[in-house]
Amino acid sequence: MDGVGHLVPQRRDVAQASHAARCRRLVYLYEDIAAQSRTMRHSALAGDWDDVAALRRDCIRLMTRIRELAPRCRLDAQQARRRLEMLREILADDAEIRALHEPRLRWVDQLLHASSSPQVSSDPE
């Protein structure tokens, strides 16, 4: 800093470069989650719910990193558009996964409430 409390240009450049790197990393994290979300959707389509659960745990870890990084980053217009694209993809994948999982949830609900009713199928599909 100079005597007036301003950042010396060199330090300001370093701070800006660091901020830019954080913002790029933030966008990469959203892209990673979108990729995981696509893989989760493919696993759900294949009926591999164990893989869906494992991938979900990975997504939670990535989301934790986003929550830590996002408050320290102001995305530029292009990065903000890319982030929005990723969020839309993630939400579409999530909706499809939920739709695929709904029959299993109904089946589990029937099992839980079927102690007096023997008509519950042994297969959720």
Q: Decide which structural class fits the backbone.
A: mainly alpha
How many strands, which pairing sense, and closed or not: the largest β-sheet? none
The overall pLDDT average reads 84
Overall, the morphology is: elongated
Give the distance, in angstroms, between the N- and C-terminal Cα atoms. 67 Å
The tally of beta strands, per DSSP, is: 0
Indicate the percent of residues in helices.
over 70%
Q: In sequence order, what are the helices and strands, one letter per element? A: HHH
Radius of gyration: 22 Å
Unreliable segments of 5+ consecutive residues:
none
Beta percentage is under 5%
Number of helices: 3
Describe this structure in words.
The protein is mainly alpha-helical and 125 residues long. Helix content is 75%, strand content 0%. The chain has helices at 9-45, 49-69, 77-112. α1 (9-45) runs antiparallel to α2 and α1 packs parallel to α3 (77-112). The radius of gyration is 22 Å and the shape is elongated. The termini are far apart.
